[in-house]
Each structure stands twice: as C-alpha cells, then as structure tokens.
Amino acid sequence: MDSALARRVLTTTFPERRVSDPSALRAGNVKRTFTATVDGDAVVVQLHSDPARLHVEATLTRAVGDRTSLRVPTVRATGTLDGHGYLLTDRAPGEDLHERFTALDRSERRSVVATFGRALGELHEVFRFDGHGPVGVDGDDLVVETSRSWAAWFDHLTATGLDAFPEALADLRPRIERALADRPAADHRSTLFPWDLRPGNARYDGSVTFLDWGGPMTATAECSLAKTEYVVVDWYTPSPALREAFHDGYRRSTTLAADYWGERRPYYRLAAVVRTAVDSRGVVTRPGYPERDGDAAVRFHRDHLEATLAAVESRTE
Questions:
Q1: How far apart are CA 48 and CA 73, in angstroms?
Q2: Which CATH number does the domain 3-90 belong to among 3.30.70.380, 3.30.200.20, 1.10.10.410, 3.20.20.450?
Q3: Is the pLDDT of residue 55 over 90?
Q4: Which segments of the protein form a coiled coil according to its record (predicted)?
C-alpha cells in the first residue's frame, strides 16, 4: 500500500479535479495514511488491506458527525481499489494534539481534557447496542458482529492484553488474573467503546477534531470511561486537576454512579493498563510526548500495573 495507490484513489474519486501527489503521514498500526490536496483543499487518504474495516470506520465517522456534537472529519468517499479498502476524508484543521498537548498551558490543557470527557459521555448516551463484541455494519446500521455476554467479552479483552505481554511484564500475569477474577458485578448495558479516543488521534486549532474511528467495539460505559481516562490523563501529564476536569466533562453529558469510584473503577483501570501496554502488532506502546520507548516504556507500564494491582489487592485483604 503506497502513495501510487493513494493517488489512484484520488484521481478515481475526483477525475475532473486537480490532485497533488500524496505524502505519507505518521504510520498507524494497521493502516497507511497519506495527505494530499484536491483543488487546493487538504484531504486524507487511508488505505487498509481489509476493505470491511474502513467501511465500518467510515460508517461510524458519519454517524458520530450526524448524531453528536463532536467535530469529526467529513467523509468524502470510501470503497475498494485493487483489493484494498480506502477512506477519503477532509483533513482536520490545526495541529497534531499528541505533539501539542503537553505544551498547552494548564488552563487550556484542562479545557481539552474536559472536552474528551464530555465527548465520551455523549457517545455513551447516543450509541447503545445489544450485547458485547466488535462493532460492524449491517446495511446502514452499526451492530455487534458476534454478540456475547459482558463477562465473556471482558475476559476476552483482558486475556488478549495479557497474552501480548513482553517478558518484562509476564511475571505480573498471575496476580492480575487473580485480581480481575474477583471483580464485582457491574451494569452490563452495552455502549460504544471508542478505543482510540485520545490526544494521539486528534487535531487541535482551539477546538478538538476527533480522528480514527477504526476498530470500534462495545463495553460497559464504566469500563470505557476508565480506559479513556487512562490514555487521556495518565498517558501525558497526570494531575488531580486534569482528572477532575475529565470527569466533570463526562458528567456534563451523562451520569456516573457514585459507587463507581470505590467498587468498579480499580478493576476497570487495571484492565485498561493491561490492554494498552501492547499494541495490535505486539509492540510495547510508547506513552507520552516526547514518547517513551524501550526500557522507559516498559517501566511506565509496569509502574502503573503494580500501582493499580496494589489498589485492587488492598480491597480483598
């Protein structure tokens, strides 16, 4: 999947318009992404070897734009070319928030974090599903592809994360499995779990544009909340003020049970740390900006795993 294919997507979609040569952007885990111009307007071309994946992403992006107040890129076209899926959108204005976030002043950073919380709460209110699992498309509808119980889906998500652990984290697995086995009963209602709702998938020009709606799945709202809190607040510059701003933003869009904090958040937070330590390619993720890598990245994940484990284990002593 190279720039020649991206250019063919553009010239096929806009045969009568002036198209620039595509330039590769920062590569994602499973997609190739290019930017170009069409009659001077900036656009983004995403390519994927599985066309169905980008069809789902396009459908969800349109649905979020139509049904919520979140700012998302306008979808220009989606389809298949030479056996590869493509998704063509307008390029969002502003800068990469992943690179800009830590440079914002404290007040502006709190405002951005609150925006993420509010956005997540709105998504939880708007998108509800029957059962749990990966989200797919049936006609024009977003549906759960293979529905299962919340307990089975939660176990699948955490086991997938544990299976991917590098050797430097593998010794923690027995403790994590014991801790998660004792999790309390939870509200099983299914809502959208936007896996990549984080500064690394957003652009910023004073307002946030939310990018990358690929690989959607469902979860309980509380599990999704704990994971998003972790990658928005803890991933970069954690502070009590940012954590408070995130949850205040969330509560502006939806409700949050009072017993979430003491009863279920520690378990969902542990699951979030487990599931984000390694990416879909089996590579240890690189938190923060500038990004940690190598031993520093492993140490970040281990420190958070041990701290979160200690919080869960203290409940059963």
A1: 18
A2: 3.30.200.20
A3: yes
A4: none
